[in-house]
Predict the structure.
Amino acid sequence: MSKALPPVSGTVYGTLLNYKGELDALGDAVNRPPYQAPPRGPIMYIKPVNTIIGYGKPIPLPEDVQELSMGAALGIVIGKTATRVNESEALDYIAGYTVVNDVSIPHSSVYRPAIKQKIRDGFCPVGPCVIERDAVDNPDDLTVRVKINGDVRQENTTKHLIRPAAKLIADVTDFMTLSAGNILLVGVPENAPLAKAGDRVRIEIDGVGCVENTVVREDELKRGKKQ
């Protein structure tokens, strides 16, 4: 597939620590300062519009960084305004699903998302399309896969979510409104693989699709624009 525009233009909201393995990997650290206890509610962050790119667009690698973390995420595309939604009705607010690569610079911050490491330009490949809600039998039983240069580097499943899709929507809309076109990421599995300059990264979600992009050094992209 050639380069494509992302299929939606709404705000992308990310969720941290929503895979069981991701939370388990922290071990007893969640009970020590500054955290003191495991999170009671969803830990959210925003991937603003500057981060969003489409299928085939280059992922910029900052000049002072050697590798980037590739975060495979199921994107829930909201179909109508959602405020204080009941869990039993939450799936009715979904327009469809898409594939997202939640790119970040490797970091250790968890409860306080590392803004500079997550919202750089081009750090959120999305697409290339939205699959209608009814075409996905169960969003909580989808295999998620990361391939780098054709090799499988990670495989997990949304069966391991702490908050499945309906529960996540209900909990998030308890304190904030989601609007049509917004994308809510269910989370990224533990041990996200790293990619370096020149690597071709493909995020696959069975039944939803894939998004593929190549990591390119930021200075090379700048030189290309000047030519």
